């Protein structure tokens, strides 16, 4: 009983002493805190010509990126999930004219433009939710396989 009480006291004292030390993380500055989360009210529309496209970037944020030449300069745009683009037959090539709705968000030590909606001609594809979360690709169910296995459609 005395041993249990002593152990409990040690754990409580250790937690009380280390708690404030664990919470000493450098807070975000006001400008970075405001940009840390996606906010649909801050969305911007970019219109331009694709200079380059890659479906799998080697540096974070991973995933498809494109370099868009706009009237204001060149912008690196993160597109979300490449499988979502492929599943929706949304192809991007150099020279394509695109309209991109999204916003700049804090990423690492700088900012990154993240797309929420891509539009090429009459085809528009949402790639993020209104909260800025990349939409994931869901493979379509194979109805023939479900019937063969006795699954519910």
Note down, in words, how this protein is organized:
With 153 residues, the protein is of the alpha+beta class. 26% of the residues lie in helices and 32% in strands. The protein is built from four helices and six strands; from the N terminus they run ααβββαβββα. It has helices at 2-22, 30-36, 82-87, 143-148, and strands at residues 44-54, 65-70, 73-78, 97-107, 110-120, 123-126. It has a five-stranded mixed beta barrel. Strand 2 and strand 3 form a beta hairpin. The protein is globular, with a radius of gyration of 23 Å.
Find the structural class using helix and strand composition. alpha+beta
What does the largest sheet look like? 5 strands, mixed, barrel
CATH topology of the domain at 31-126: OB fold (Dihydrolipoamide Acetyltransferase, E2P)
| CATH architecture identity of the domain at 31-126 | Beta Barrel
- The general outline is globular
Strand line-up across the major sheet: 1-2-3-5-4
First and last CA, distance: 60 Å
The CATH class label of the domain at 31-126 is Mainly Beta
């Amino acid at each position: 009983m005395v041993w249990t009480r002593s152990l409990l006291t040690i754990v409580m004292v250790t937690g009380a002493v280390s708690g404030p030390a664990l919470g000493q993380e450098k807070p975000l500055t006001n400008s970075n805190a405001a940009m840390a989360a996606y906010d649909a009210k801050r969305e911007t529309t970019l219109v331009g010509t694709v200079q380059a496209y890659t479906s799998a970037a080697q540096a974070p944020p991973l995933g498809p990126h494109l370099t868009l030449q706009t009237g204001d300069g060149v912008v690196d745009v993160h597109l979300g999930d490449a499988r979502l683009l492929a599943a929706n037959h949304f192809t991007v090539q150099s020279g394509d004219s695109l309209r991109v709705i999204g916003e700049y968000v804090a990423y690492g030590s700088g900012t990154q433009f993240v797309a929420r909606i891509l539009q090429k001609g009459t085809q528009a594809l949402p790639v993020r939710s209104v909260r800025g979360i990349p939409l994931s690709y869901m493979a379509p169910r194979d109805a023939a396989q479900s019937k063969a296995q006795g699954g519910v459609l």
